[in-house]
Amino acid sequence: MYKIKVLDFLAIGVYELATISQRRIERLCNPTLSELPAFLVNGFMIAHCTATSLVSENKVLCHPSSVDFLSTEDHVSMGGWAARKALRVVEQGP
Q1: Phi, then psi, of 55 in degrees rounded to 5
Q2: Residue 61 vs residue 93, higher pLDDT
Q3: DSSP annotation of 63
Q4: Alpha-carbon distance 63 to 60, whole Å?
Q5: Residues 43-62 pLDDT 10s
Q6: What is the largest CA-CA distance in the chain?
Q7: SS3 assignment, position 73
Q8: DSSP 8-state symbol, 70
């Protein structure tokens, strides 16, 4: 059970880093906050949309596997799923 929680926390930690990165890109795309000219801000919109999409996907993947088990099974059965989810979140990275 503890290995599952470690993988859950790994995924959540990487997700938090990704949200910080996404927020920084958003601030860069906001002409009021970045004080950049509009033509430069528009160039960052693809990066902003991509980062937002990845953060949203990772949010779904960060549902803890350690709480998602059936009463007829033990926590070990969810370990594989926890590992696959954590790997996907880490691969997408911040």
Answers
A1: -65, -40
A2: 61
A3: S
A4: 6
A5: 788 888 888 888 888 888 88
A6: 60
A7: coil
A8: -
- Phi first, then psi: what are they for 49, rounded to 5°? -65, -40
Q: Left, alpha or beta for 61 (phi > 0: left; psi -120 to 50: alpha)?
A: alpha
Does residue 82 contact residue 4 with C-beta atoms inside 8 Å?
yes
pTM listed for this prediction: 0.67
Q: How many CA atoms lie within 13 A of 23 on its CB side?
A: 6
Instruction: List C-alpha distances in Å: 58 to 6, 10, 29.
Output: 17, 12, 22
- What CA–CA distance (Å, rounded) separates 73 from 71? 6
How far apart CA 8 and CA 45 sit, in angstroms, is 31
Residues 6+ apart with CB under 8 A from 75: 1, 4, 66, 69
Length of the chain equals: 94
Q: Cα–Cα distances in Å, from 54 out to 1, 64, 69? A: 28, 18, 26
